[in-house]
Amino acid sequence: MYRTRPQDEGRLCSEFRFSQAFTQQYELGEKIGKGAHATVHIATDRVTGERVAVKVMPKQLGPNGFLDPHFVRRVRNEVDIASHLCGSLNVCFFHGAYESDAAVHLVLELLSGGPLWDRISSNSYGERAAARLVREVLRTVAQCHSKGIMMRDIKPHNFMFATQAEDSPLKAVDFGISVFCRPGEVIKQRAGTRIVMAPEVVRCRYGLKADLWSVGIMAYMLLTGRLPFPFYERLFVSRQKVPADEMYAEILHAPLDFESPPWDTLSADAADLVALLLDRDQERRPTAKEALKHRWLQDAEGSADGEDVPLNRGIVQRLQRFGTYGRLKQVALRTVANHIPTDSTTIADLRGIFLELDPSDSGRVPYTRLQQELEDGTYTVSSAEARQLLGQLAMTEDGSITFTEWVAALMDWSKMYESSEWDVLVERAFHAIDKDGSGTLTADELELVLCGDEGCQAPDDLDAAMREADLLDAEGGIGLEQFRALLAGEIGDRLDLFETRLPSNMESYSGTMDSTMDSTMYGTVDSDHT
Ligand SMILES: Nc1ncnc2c1ncn2[C@@H]1O[C@H](COP(=O)(O)OP(=O)(O)OP(=O)(O)O)[C@@H](O)[C@H]1O
């Protein structure tokens, strides 16, 4: 994620250093959405014909003619967080960023199922359907929190369905006001959308747990079609303006309504989880990982979906986990994988599955064969998602994936990390990258492993990788200890943070819903501008 550095604030227009080749690569089509900071269009890839969404953000200049620092921060947030999370199927896939003199273009996965907001307004969810959606939202939050990212604007507008299907996956969009926040860190700037704002955000002293309150409000809305606060009636039914101070007072003090219908017909488990998430004491409120273990969410998909999924049915989970590691960490893991002896027992099960795909034991599997494996019905992934997942893997020139790559992507690295082999492997990998033997990985050496002999094509590639690895300040290079820390961080991300995408029976939506809610009542308060 972007941290504001003095030299980045107010840079001249061209200085995002994104590619300027948008119009060469894409044909811009009809407008499909509008937010406060951007318009969103459909666009078509001129070579592949693939349809994508393009978020066009007009460049905002400050009075001095330089780019407005808030604008720079918002764009960097979106780009960096989307890059961090691009392996996750719970997040709208980010294809890349472009800029012209007038605008930044963010090319995104096209989500044609519309925002969750629209379905909340026209449907009520049966408990099981609601539980599935809450679980997807919690997974997204858990993935973000494990990367130290606070989403800060969790609301039904910022989750969109991939398709029109009732059981469509739900994906997060719009990370414009998200921030880096380590566990225990306190943020003091009020930001977000009032109706989902946690009490501690209102008080301007908050951390990651504030996201869980917002999930609680979303879960409440999914189950009841309304908000738990008295101001709901005035704002959404009578359509009156409610002063911000009055909303804040109710968020801080008003009793939350768990009595009125339909609470009398909802399960005790549903009420229990929502009440836990809406605990005003953030210390007692569960983390996203704890909430995911709640009883109400356990049978949400009716299928096994956790650490217990066998390797041969857990490829989608593992590819997502690898995809969220960041490019520099991925290449570092590849280098480590390259040093694991092929007969090591730690990779025996991975070898067995690889051999099923590569019966002649050539050490390679064609990319197309893997794509077929993901799309053959074992998993519920679209072609674009299969490409997204496999796009994390480095391909050989003949379009194959090597066994080393397979190990790097699918390995349970936490087990290797705990083994006696780990330290030696990391050291060997470090020395393999440190070509000049200086004991430090320089920018040139990192560029070589990231982008090969030709160097990085997009000027921002190396910077972005360093930002992802939180190593932007490592101007003198990366030493062995930093390299170790890079590899160890988040190594133990639990697999059940990621969807299995194994088929399961989904309950249909049911019931009725108040359809008077209106997106105009839903504006983000971006405190950077207030
Ligand atoms: N990937 C996508 N696929 C299809 N439509 C999208 C996509 N991303 C956004 N949209 C549509 O465009 C609208 C505006 O997008 P978005 O919310 O990201 O803009 P914004 O200006 O950053 O928002 P905000 O007003 O919350 O700051 C969304 O409400 C949605 O309807």
SSE topology:
Blueprint: H1 22-25, E1 26-34, E2 39-45, E3 51-58, H2 69-84, E4 94-99, E5 103-109, H3 116-122, H4 127-146, E6 149-150, E7 159-161, E8 170-172, E9 179-180, E10 192-193, H5 199-202, H6 210-224, H7 231-237, H8 244-253, H9 268-277, H10 288-292, H11 295-298, H12 315-323, H13 327-338, H14 348-357, E11 364-366, H15 367-375, H16 383-390, E12 400-402, H17 403-410, H18 413-418, H19 422-433, H20 443-451, H21 461-468, H22 480-488, E13 524-525
Antiparallel strand pairs: 1-2, 2-3, 3-5, 4-5, 6-9, 7-8, 10-13, 11-12
Bound molecules: adenosine-5'-triphosphate.
Pfam families: EF-hand_5 (PF13202), Pkinase (PF00069)
GO molecular function: ATP binding; calcium ion binding; protein serine/threonine kinase activity
Keywords: ATP-binding, Calcium, Kinase, Nucleotide-binding, Serine/threonine-protein kinase, Transferase
